[in-house]
């Protein structure tokens, strides 16, 4: 591929046919007129490369500065954290990201999601690309309450998004992600509302279309809350409804599903529901497999789960149980036809490693990141370490 410069890409890739390469290397799916063949080919190849060979997954490192300061603060540094200047904190973020990216292996990790600061200002995409890891970027901006239902939060950032993502592509990104929080309570308490659900689904689909317009594979992330009183069937039902709604809106907005991925949460009982401690990884695995079979179109190449702050062991056990269920399903089971089921974990991958780095133990940090990357890679094949 020729080097990418600020002038390499027109503002709307899909409206600029590249006939020569379209004829040379057509994608193997039927395209709507709004998708040029060469861009579609690249989107499809990138989406597939993020989930193949089976086992590989994504490392999510797109926390905003406040969140990463908390991760890197920890009990031993809380006092010092307050003393650090903005510049010192920025330098610390850069050093942590760099250390983590140097530590990970392309044997287990296919892609990394970067915070825009890491991509554009620290320019760390090349470090990943040189290791055979695909850089991506966080696309969503801030949250704001939905007027009709103030307990639910819509996501800002669609204005000016195309330009922002084009700049990210020039800086080396090849995919992006957008997280929408979905409230989830018991049926009696009534969240999510229809207004909330439709707002999130349409925002995710608009984002996905714009991301593809900028030449980046979109990862739509419906993050269903598990802090309230929903039980497992209710959580699974909310997941199924929101994911179905997202793909309905993706059809309306013309998203090329083969060049996209989805990053859902794991359906699970809420922290305030009495069944929370009784649920097994196998219960969760069956609920997830059912949700995905009913709501994710077969043309989507992969589902990459978020860990949602679950302990690493728990998040990994859910992924392993899900993939073990797929492996043991009969040939005529719908679970045999599911997309690749992998991970896009943040906290479950790096939580322990960050603590070692904070204590200055770089070797232990590398070892821990390797340990959890490998555990996730095994889990995504239905195996345990
Ligand atoms: P966690 O795995 O820590 O939930 O992070 C994934 C992510 O990208 C959340 O938006």
- Supply the CATH superfamily name: Aldolase class I
Number of helices: 13
Which geometry do the CA atoms define? globular
Largest sheet: 8 strands, parallel
What structural category do the secondary elements indicate?
alpha/beta
CATH architecture: Alpha-Beta Barrel
Q: Please give the number of β-strands.
A: 10
Question: In which order are the strands of the major sheet placed?
Answer: 8-7-6-3-2-1-10-9
Average per-residue pLDDT, rounded, comes to: 93
- Using the coordinates above, name the CATH class: Alpha Beta
What can you tell me about this protein's structure?
47% of the residues lie in helices and 14% in strands. The protein has 385 residues and is of the alpha/beta class. The strands form two sheets. An eight-stranded parallel β-sheet has the order 8-7-6-3-2-1-10-9. Helix 9 (232-252) links the parallel strand 7 and strand 8 (261-262). Helix 3 packs across helix 4, helix 8 (194-213) packs across helix 9 and helix 10 (281-295) crosses helix 11 (312-328). The radius of gyration is 20 Å and the shape is globular. The protein starts with 18 loop residues before the first helix and ends in a 6-residue tail after the last helix. The structure holds 1,3-dihydroxyacetonephosphate. 1,3-dihydroxyacetonephosphate binds at residues 60, 62, 179, 221, 306-309, 345-348. 1,3-dihydroxyacetonephosphate (13P) is lined by residues 60, 62, 179, 221, 306-309, 345-348. This is fructose-bisphosphate aldolase.
